[in-house]
Write a structure and sequence with these properties.
The protein folds into three domains: about 100 residues, no CATH class; about 100 residues, Pdz3 Domain (Roll); about 240 residues, 2-enoyl-CoA Hydratase, Chain A, domain 1 (Alpha-Beta Complex), CATH 3.90.226.10. Helices cover about 35% and strands about 20% of the residues. The chain is built from 15 helices and 22 strands. Strand 12, helix 9 and strand 13 form a beta-alpha-beta unit. The longest helix has 22 residues. The protein is globular, with a radius of gyration of 25 Å.
Length: about 500
């Protein structure tokens, strides 16, 4: 048996060993030093063998492993939560946006307490405190001091960073939004309090020239900011079940809300409706597709819209990836589900082969050691299947609205069509990721991380980079207050005044 197989067997045995231990100690509050170090060692070996993000960020991950081991070793006793936090710190250095960690055992019921106001992310590094009014509208918690700047004497951004470890390398706006979202569940962010306890808070004025320090008591009722465009409800029954996702504005502007990346095998009725919808808007003047707060799913919608957004007989590589590990039949099916195919898949079409050869020669390769067991590149080729009578080339302007919660397959959707001659991306940078994640159980924890490096067509990784809009439109205060969808309204105004035209970019 070679060295690699021996190491693999050792990792499996260690994992099995610690899963057994975890089942016997689910109610334990502490772990021994031996258990903690062995657990970190098992997790480190697992990552080194199976995580491609470990390879590309090796130095920072190993440095964090050493730091966590030293910190835990200096403690007289190690609480389970301290061990969990250490593992989170290690995972944070991967830069893997699909990485997650959870305890295997069910959490004991804890007292739920909240700040007596809602929080919303503002531009850059500002956090707004809000009162909730009727009809999901909001107003400032402190009129003269809208920004929450410190909690218990700690800067708000540092506080978020300390309590939201796994999002360390998320795009900046995503990191702020996700951190604020967690703070609206304050009992999950900072434990050790109880209802009625006082928390010291500092608020800052809009011009950042003055501030005020107040003390608030934690309450048992949640006041959470709900963004005006996040929730889509079907207000009434209609003949067509998905009509609530569409709207027609003046001057022939069509609007379509994609609140998820529908899977054709599960949502065939939706695709039938979508085909009818696209046929019905053939003579419209513009199409807006809203994928804000779309957390992903299947790539079937990318293939569907390729038939409308790509010029007939044109094609290009929209995404390419490398898988770490053996490409089994199961993995191959997962890659095909993502429309990812090996180079030889395109060999029958000489024109496509020429495009792939040209594309491959210009790849922005991340340095990956050849002995790490990576697959060859897999490619997602997009084209217009113009031989289907249901489809047509939509040669009018198309605007994709994205935000910091456009994630996974939805971020691939945005990246794939960015740069086409009639496509404009609007909003703020997406939270991109595309990693083919798998789960493991180690030392009483359920670990999930990506096994694939996935690249945008410009050569950048999805994870941590995101996709930038062509036109940036941020939230306004009225948007935060739930009074208007400012991003959509600004886009409609610009279209109406013809201030936006698709950028003249080549497709290939």
């Amino acid at each position: 048996m070679n060295k690699g197989k021996l190491l693999g067997s050792a990792v499996v045995l260690v994992i099995i060993f610690f899963v057994v231990i975890s089942k016997d100690q689910t109610e334990e509050k502490y772990v021994t030093h031996v258990e903690a170090f062995a657990g970190i060692d098992a997790i480190s070996k697992l990552l080194s063998e199976r995580s491609p993000y470990f390879d590309i960020n090796r130095d920072q991950v190993i440095s964090k492993i050493d730091m966590v081991t030293e910190e835990l070793g200096a403690k007289e006793t190690i609480e389970v939560d301290e061990f969990l936090n250490g593992v989170k710190q290690i995972f944070s250095e991967l830069g893997d946006r699909h990485a997650s960690i959870k305890k295997l055992e069910s959490e004991l019921k804890t007292e739920k307490y909240y700040l007596p106001f809602a929080l919303a992310p503002w531009q850059r590094d500002k956090v707004i405190a809000l009162r909730q009014n009727p009809n999901l509208e909001y107003s400032l918690y402190l009129e003269k001091f809208p920004f929450l700047s410190k909690i218990q004497g700690e800067n708000i951004i540092e506080f978020i960073s300390r309590h939201d470890i796994l999002n360390k390398y998320a795009p900046s706006q995503t990191r702020l939004s996700l951190g604020v979202e967690k703070m609206n569940e304050f009992y999950q962010v900072d434990d050790g309090f109880k209802i009625g306890d006082s928390v010291s808070l500092k608020f800052m004025s809009a011009n950042e020239e003055s501030d005020t320090l107040i003390s608030v008591k934690l309450v048992n009722s949640k006041t959470k900011w709900r963004e005006i465009n996040k929730y889509v409800f079907q207000s009434k029954k209609t003949k067509e079940p998905y009509d609530y996702l569409r709207h027609t504005y003046g001057d022939g502007i069509e609007y379509l809300r994609l609140n998820q990346m529908f899977d054709k095998s599960k949502d065939n009725l939706f695709f039938q409706w979508l085909t009818e919808y696209m046929n019905s808007i053939r003579n419209s003047n513009a199409l807006i597709i809203d994928i804000r707060h779309n957390s992903g799913g299947s790539r079937d919608l990318i293939d569907f819209f390729s038939n409308y957004f790509i010029k007939p007989n044109d094609f290009f590589v929209a995404n390419y990836a490398k898988y770490k590990g053996k490409v089994t039949n199961t993995i191959k099916e997962s890659l095909i589900k993502r429309s990812l195919y090996p180079f030889d898949h395109f060999i029958d079409d000489n024109t496509q082969r020429l495009v792939l050869e040209k594309f491959s020669s210009g790849l922005k390769n991340i340095k990956i050691s050849k002995d790490k067991g990576y697959s060859d590149y897999y490619y997602m080729m997009l084209k217009n299947n113009n031989h289907f009578v249901d489809y047509y080339y939509f040669d009018k302007p198309v605007y994709l609205i994205i935000n910091e919660h456009t994630f996974s397959a939805a971020s691939v959707f945005a990246s794939s069509f960015k740069g086409l001659s009639n496509i404009v991306l609007v909003g703020v940078c997406s939270d991109s990721s595309s990693g083919l994640a798998k789960s493991y159980e180690v030392s009483g924890l359920r670990l999930r991380f990506s096994h694939m490096l996935s690249f945008q067509k410009d050569g950048n990784l999805f994870d941590g980079k995101g996709t930038e809009p062509d036109i940036e439109i941020n939230r306004s205060l009225n948007h935060i207050f739930g009074i208007e969808d400012h991003q959509l309204n600004m886009l409609l105004t610009k279209i109406d005044k013809q201030k936006i035209v698709p950028p003249p970019k080549a497709q290939n």
